[in-house]
Amino acid sequence: MTDLSYAGTLREITTDAGVLRYHEAGEGPPLLLLHGSGPGVTGWRNFGGNLAVFARRFRCLVLEFPGFGVSDDFGGHPMVTALDAVVRFVDALGLDSVDIIGNSMGGGVALNYAIAHPARVGKLVTIGGIGRNLFSPGPGEGIKLLQEFTEEPTRERLIQWLHSMVYDPALVTDELIEERWTQATDPATLDSARRMYSKAAFAMMVRAMEAADTPPPWAMLHKVAAPTLITWGRDDRVSPLDMALIPMRTIPRAELHVFPNCGHWAMIERKREFESAVLAFLTREDATH
């Protein structure tokens, strides 16, 4: 029987920017899984529970982004180095093409990779976190709580943020809190989080986008050629559902699946339904246009 434990699936690969660590399980077409951001996040915590299902059909590769405490920190803004890490990772493994599942930030990274390397992406699945607010205020409640934790990390603020991620508060267990607290308060990981989510960093990012001559990311989604399944929790308090409207309309081959009674972590909170919908999408034979 395949060992699907943390230690049994953990691998690492050396690049000239540093060591990338990842989890690998299963055989078949390569499926790259990209995690989101936030205190104590890792690829394993996002997707470890889904490997048993996806590894039956795919060679699952759960990449740990630089700057989140598992892979080496490449320096710079972690959202920028994440895309570079994907390029280096896919090249290092010699993969011609991959399907990608990206959670929140990981979905944004996946879309940017698909725009830059259209021939190297088969199908895409995103989980919340893309697009822009149309009817709801931005940033969302969960992002504001994340900023507050980053400014002053306390266990109480971590718990408040975790509750904003889910519909069912029972999912915020003592074990989850302890895991996230240990990872999130590691000095190097906390420094990385502040480069992304401190109020100063967030304000700087907004000013840079306003001053840039290039279009914002949401305005480039029409360039995504890959068939894309957009998944969303109806009750997402981090990236509200109205954010899905622009990606749904502008990604040429996009489909939208909304899970009821579900927050930001659809792959965890609606595990069976998510896995069923994603497997059906990834294994379906599509028309070429």
From TrEMBL:
Start and end residues of each AB hydrolase-1 domain: 31-274
InterPro entries: AB_hydrolase_1 (IPR000073), AB_hydrolase_fold (IPR029058), AB_hydrolase_sf (IPR050266)
Cellular-component GO terms for this entry: membrane
Classification via Gene3D superfamilies: alpha/beta hydrolase
Domain of life: Bacteria
Listed GO biological process terms: acylglycerol catabolic process
GO MF annotations, alphabetized: monoacylglycerol lipase activity
PANTHER family reported in the protein's UniProt record: MONOACYLGLYCEROL LIPASE, MONOACYLGLYCEROL LIPASE ABHD6
The protein's name in its UniProt record: Pimeloyl-ACP methyl ester carboxylesterase
Protein species of origin: Nocardia alba
Organism lineage string: Bacteria, Bacillati, Actinomycetota, Actinomycetes, Mycobacteriales
